[in-house]
Task: structure prediction
Amino acid sequence: MSASRVVLVTGGNRGIGRAIAERFVRDGYRVAVTARSGEGPMGTLTVRADVTDSAALDAAFTEVEAQLGPVEIVVANAGITRDMLLLRMSEEDFDTVVDTNLGGTFRVVKRASKGMLKAKFGRVILISSVVGLYGGAGQINYSSSKAALVGFARSLTRELGSRGITANVVAPGFIETDMTAELPEDTQKEYKKSIPAGRFASPDEVAGVVTWLASDDAAYISGAVIPVDGGLGMGH
Result:
């Protein structure tokens, strides 16, 4: 039964990651989340790890494997922003974001792939962003790291596609999280005008797409980029 599979969601203590973890729990999966601080939702196993630290990640995976079993579905969601216009962006602002968002994905997926190869089954789901392909002023570091996930998933598909492993990208647009709630009301109105759907998404609308990609229904989908953005990024 596919729903009893083991899932690991990075950055599963808040925002979209938390909603994804909750949805997997609701659907009957065995769910672990990594968090630097805080706890994952009820019914999940929280393991401490920073995705920039390979040794900590390895220990986290070992703990999940001991308590729940080998990780069959990995959702690389942990990410940070350090928005700044190019001319003011420091090398550290660039490197830190790329090392977390892209390097973190590399470390997590590399560690997860060992078990997936053994099992001849795996679902790799990378959480990107509409700005990965649409672009965002002041977000050269973030949008570069998120665009890179497309090349990552497609290369992984070519490497591991024949082993029952899929790799896909979900690209959310504006989502109702703490981050968007802090935006001034006028700014929110402006953003909504540019979204054909005329509203922000709920985190659960992203989570539903992720759980579907993890399901048997999506076994023949790999290397795809699925936008969940209300039509904001059409045509990219």
About this structure: Residues 91-119 form the longest helix (29 residues). The chain has a mean pLDDT of 95. The beta strands are 6-10, 30-35, 44-48, 73-76, 122-127, 165-172, 225-228.
